[in-house]
Structure formats: structure tokens, C-alpha cells
Amino acid sequence: MKRRQLLAVTGTVAVAGCLADSSTDTDEPDDGNESPSDEQPPEVDTTVTDATLETRELDGDRTETAVTGLVENTSDARLGLVSVAGKFYDADGQLLSSSPWDVRDLEPGQVWEPWIPYMGEGDVDHAELVVTDATAHSRTIAPNGMVLESHDMQIPTDDLAMPRVLGTVSNQSESDVGILQARLKTIADNGNLLETGIASIQNFGAGESWDFDQQIHFKNPDWKERIGGYQIVLTA
Q1: Which end of the chain has less neighbouring CB within 10 Å, N or C?
Q2: CATH assignment of 6-22+139-235, given 2.60.40.3230, 3.40.50.10490, 2.40.70.10, 2.60.40.10?
Q3: Residues annotated as region Disordered (predicted)?
Q4: For residues 190 and 229, is the Cβ–Cβ distance under 8 A?
Q5: Distance between CA atoms of 122 and 103, rounded to whole angstroms?
Q6: Residue 11 neighbours by CB under 8 Å, 6+ apart
Q7: How far apart are CA 71 and CA 79, in angstroms?
Q8: At a CB cut-off of 8 Å and minimum separation 6, what does 26 contact?
Q9: Biggest distance spanned by C-alpha atoms of the chain
Q10: In a structure prediction context, what are the per-residue pLDDT tens digits for the chain, which is 236 residues long?
Q11: Is the CB of residue 166 less than 8 Å from the CB of residue 149?
């Protein structure tokens, strides 16, 4: 059996009370236990500062065409969802294909580098990145008591194997948590966000521990070599 080679990286944890949001990052109805608030939702703003058409070599003398670039959170709100579309055009400006991708945590000032492959037919002349949705985290800071006891990232050097983030969380509060999420962020050496993933558990009881092992899918497997660190953001 061939043993997979692993690359070592350093991780950080964002838990201080645990940043919290909904599982879908959309507004949810109030449960009726809190008084109404006149507070306005935070203003959301994102900017595509760069978009380029690139290719990478595949097996069998094949190539992949993709659009990549820089998407920055230019607002003061921490975003729980940012979705973009990679749009590909021919030389006449005719749209050939449009493909979506998203990340699930983008801090103010943070930059995301998406890689979106071309899935259509026909010769691509140029492409663009368009932000199709951006939503602030829709809940307030979660109650204290969610403790990340341990964590690690495994990055196989196999071409097709994806990185995995592992961890153990304990509920040291006196209350059950309906849904607890571990939002997993891979960070490049330049500080930009590459890809994200989410592990979650429902009905997380007081005093219980949860072990998670979550794969993070990379649209560009070559970018695994760019990972310089990772971050785990617990939300509830």
C-alpha cells in the first residue's frame, strides 16, 4: 500500500466567544424570546480588484482554462457567504459559460483568490469575475463555552487528494447547542484566502465532545502547495 505524504502547516483558531452565524448565512425568523431591535444590518461591500484568464497543465497533454483574481471584502462587516461567478466569453463577446463558487468566511479587508475552471465548449477569449451574493454573518457572538481542544491540517502531496482539517471541540457551557459549525479556512503565504469548508454537528449537548474530520475541496489542486496556514472559526 502506498503511504500518502503529508505537508505540515500551522493553524490558528478564532473562537473568543465563537463567531456565530446561521448555517445558511441568510436572515432567519426570530424565535420570539428577544425584544425587537431597530439596529440596521451591517453594510456589505465587496470589490473584484483583478480577474485574469489562466491555464494549467493536466495529465495526458491536456490543459485547463480558468479565471482567477482577487475578491476583497471592502466593508466593515464580516461576511459569512461570498459567491462569485466566473463568466467566459468568445472573441465576439458571446457568453460561453458561467460557473459559481463561494467561500464561507471573509473578514473585513481580507482578499479571496478564487479559481474557477471553464466547463463549456468553444474557444475562450476573455473572462470576468462577478460577485453574485455577499451576506454578513446573520447572528451575534455565540455564547462562550465552545472550546477547541485540538486541531490539525493534513495536506497530502498526491495530485488528486484534498487537504483535511481535523479537530476536537468540547461544549463546556451549561446549554445544548442546536447547530455548531467549524468553518475551515486555508490561507496562502501572502495572507489571501484560498478555499473554505464547513464541518457541523447538531444537538451538541452540554459536556459533550465532538471530533470532526473535514475535507476542503480545491478547484485547483496545484494550489495545495500555496497553503501557508489555516484558521478554524467556530459558529453557532
Answers
A1: N
A2: 2.60.40.3230
A3: 19-47
A4: no
A5: 28
A6: 151, 152, 153, 165, 229, 230, 231, 232
A7: 12
A8: 135, 138
A9: 63
A10: 322 344 445 555 554 333 333 333 333 333 333 444 466 778 999 999 999 999 999 988 899 999 999 999 999 999 999 999 999 999 999 999 999 999 999 999 999 999 999 999 999 999 999 999 999 987 544 547 999 999 999 998 887 899 999 999 999 999 999 999 999 999 999 999 999 999 999 999 999 999 999 999 999 999 999 999 999 999 98
A11: no
Go through the chain and tell me how many residues it has.
236
If you search the block for the grid coordinates 482578499, which residue do you land on? 111
User: What is the DSSP track for 166-228?
Assistant: EEEEEE-SSS-EEEEEEEEEEEETTS-EEEEEEEEEEEE-TT-EEEEEEE---SSGGGGGGEE
Q: Which residues pair with 167 in a beta bridge?
A: 151, 212
Please tell me the distance from the alpha carbon of residue 185 to that of residue 91, in angstroms, as a whole number: 36
Phi, psi of 38 (to 5 degrees): -90, 5
Contacts of 225 by beta carbon, 8 Å cutoff, 6+ apart: 7
Could you tell me which residues come within 8 angstroms of residue 98 by beta carbon, excluding any fewer than 6 positions away? 85, 86, 87, 88
Q: Where in the chain is the domain with CATH 2.60.40.3230?
A: 6-22+139-235
Q: Extract the C-alpha cell encoding 33.
A: 424570546
C-alpha cell of 78? 464580516
84: helix, coil or strand?
Answer: strand
Query: Could you tell me which CATH number the domain at 46-136 has?
Result: 2.60.40
